[in-house]
Amino acid sequence: MDDRKPEIIDTRLIARSRLFGIEEMHLRFSNGEERTYERLRTPPIAGVMCVPLLDRDTVVLIREYGAGVEDYQITLPKGAYEHGEDWRDAANRELKEEAGYGARKLTLLKRMTLSPGYMGHAITVALGEDLYEEKLPGDEPEPLEVITWKLSDLDRLLEREDVTEARVIAALLMTRRILETR
User: Fold this and answer.
1) Which of 93, 73, 103, 177 is nearest to 136 (CA)?
2) pTM to 2 decimals?
3) From CA 122, how far away is CA 62, in angstroms rounded?
4) CA quadruple 52, 57, 58, 63: dihedral sign
């Protein structure tokens, strides 16, 4: 198999909203085939998500409204980097804003993409440990509900209808695996 990436012949913006841009990409593959794809333009600001642990078996979650699914979801603290932040600062800030905790120890779990076939959106996932209480004002339109859950009962959490975000599920499963090997 040829590992050469396709040649990008042309990229142009075909639609834009306040939050999203849609690009059309004309590609030529190594075998000479050409195709036109559409993709969401990659945002200039990266995202970060934190898996905060109160102890070895207790994760801190939040419940917030997801406009994309038109319902409340149980999720992890996450958001966009602010200008000049690295992933550690961004993860800790989002954790303080959304869950009311800071983390003395942050470990990089993984950089994840979401639907790489048509978007370049990525999120850096961090494990937050040695938590302490600290609340920063956030930008949410309503107060977020903070929920704690035992990782030893993760299967029951994942069965819930309000836990659907794939990257949250992946982060929780990775965290459980890491803790089991420690």
Assistant:
1) 93
2) 0.87
3) 21
4) positive
Distances (CA, A) of 168 to 27, 72, 78, 137, 156: 32, 14, 10, 23, 15
CB 55 within 8 A of CB 61: no
Q: Is residue 116 exposed (0-12), middle (13-18) or buried (19+ Cβ within 10 Å)?
A: exposed
Q: State residue 171 phi and psi, 5-degree precision.
A: -65, -40
Q: Are strands 122-133 and 47-55 parallel, antiparallel or unpaired?
A: parallel
Burial class (CB in 10 A: 0-12, 13-18, 19+), 122: middle
Dihedral, CA atoms, 53, 44, 170, 141, nearest 10 degrees? Answer: 60
Task: List the pLDDT tens digit at each of the 182 positions of the chain.
Answer: 667 899 999 999 999 988 788 999 999 998 999 999 999 887 767 899 999 999 999 999 999 999 889 999 999 999 999 888 999 999 999 999 999 999 999 999 999 988 888 888 889 999 999 999 999 999 888 999 999 999 999 999 999 999 999 999 999 999 999 999 98
